[in-house]
Amino acid sequence: MPAASLLPLFGSAPGPGTLGGPAGSGAGGGGRKAASPGAFRLTEKFVLLLVFSAFITLCFGAIFFLPDSSKLLSGVFFHSAALQPPPPPPGGQPRAPPQPGGGPAAAAAAGGAGSLERIRADHERALREAKETLQKLPEEIRRDIRQDKEKLLQDARDRKEAGAPGLPQRLFRQPVGAVGQEPADPDVRQRREKIKEMMKHAWDNYKRYAWGLNELKPISKQGHSSNLFGNIQGATIVDALDTLYIMEMKEEFKEAKEWVEKNLDFNVNAEISVFEVNIRFVGGLLSAYYLSGEEVFRKKAVELGEKLLPAFNTPTGIPWALLNIKSGIGRNWPWASGGSSILAEFGTLHLEFVHLSHLSGNPVFAEKVMNIRKVLNRLDKPEGLYPNYLNPSSGQWGQHHVSIGGLGDSFYEYLLKAWLMSDKTDEDGKKMYYDAVQAIEAHLIRKSGGGLTYIAEWKGGLLEHKMGHLTCFAGGMFALGADGAPNDKTGHHIELGAEIARTCHESYDRTRMKLGPEAFRFDGGVEAIATRQNEKYYILRPEVIETYMYMWRLTHDPKYRQWGWEAVEALEKHCRVDGGYSGIRDVYNNHESHDDVQQSFFLSETLKYLYLLFSEDDLLPFEHWVFNTEAHPLPILHKDDGNKEENQK
Ligand code: DMJ
Q: Its GO CC terms (predicted)?
């Protein structure tokens, strides 16, 4: 027993008139101090020891020697844990009846001579240690306490450095393209430098006013917290790690890493959005690991992945949208149709979870997301389309609303990218993606009177001729998937990507501030313009710039760099403020009304895609990396690198 645990017996301040004077006051001179409560005469010590051991013997005697004491022991100390019902199994399969004798608690509860022997031995050791402590000087006891404390701290430090316990050793090999060449063209180089300066402005202000909090309020110069992350902190830091790395902002990357090491804590009582925490935190940590090879990121990613697993404890295995990561209790958004989970949320876990299995050696993560695929493949789809709502208990669709923007978007993105990330071995993902695109083309994609291609929303068979800023990511997706398109449709998919890019550019160009609204419509005589006041805002979103980046890489048409630069100028003119970058309430207005939030995705996505747009193609090349939906790069699991099994999980 450490000396520290005996301290209350001897070290607490005595009440008035007991031993005369505060504990450890030092009065009394050298040798054994008569007046100090820690210094007893030998006879006093003996009496104390006798009383103490008589008391302990009495207590334990009552437990050991009363009739049926082993049952009492197991009932009091061990049984309550076993009474808690385990969470329901995923997939709704019947649970096997509990087996006797499983687990350490059950073994102890089974009692037996072994357990009693151990308890007796512990008891004797405690008495021995108490006796030894009694013979020590107060100063010696204090020294022991200090040493015990230091040892505990050192152990904790060692555990941190050694990485997560149970993680397999892994030889880190940096994937191709984690760093790239300087752009050859001086103008391009200069523009890229400007984007790096924007990152520095965003980061420095976050650091100055909101360090360690989730996001920054750049006007009021303080932290901003969103309930998407519960009380997990540091969203901007984790989201920005890989952008800092590829921009070679080494000092900033180092301070971000140190913050993660010391402060990123998932042992909190927090209800979080499984989707948001996955794409920003798990995705950010995975990318930071693959770029830098720093073990702390692998360890934290796996630790967080494990915390998310209880979200899958539903009858179908379709995860809850919200999860309390302490209690493991999940639920869905109260506004979601019929208690449903959301397509874009449960469909946007695949890439990160496959990598979690890859890095942890634990297949459970990949199994969870593969099961989502199975559930989806068993369901009938209206006109081949995927509704945005799916009930995790009944396994049935909720309202038949279909969208390639909010609530649906990244589900389609992850089908394509799962196939690409598997080095094109995930045939299931491939088929689901191209089948979905075919249905989207047939039922959702339309051309306006003015010749703009747009993607409408589908509500039970009726079209709403509205396109969200979020939907603009689809231009890049169509172009990225062009290469594998069936029936000689490669050119057609590239063309589709180009048309969506043009429409989204128009949605920017037709505003006063040259920044796109949250949603724009194609009805009542308008084209690519927001008509409702609550759709006129711009919150530093990346999707349009993301599409320019893909289109540039895949076509090298200079207009995409030109359009990207227009966005840089507009951001600088209307969103940059002293304290960072802010969203805008109405992009059609003459004067900026700032929303006072610097979203973490501005650093992880908007600025990263801009930087890549003005970089050479050798930085994070598409042959070796895919980007998660928060722009966090994840390496392709090449089959000739021994990833065959990983790809087939
Ligand atoms: C990001 O968090 C992700 O891109 C997500 O998929 C959708 N929306 C935001 C940015 O707009």
A: endoplasmic reticulum; extracellular exosome; Golgi membrane
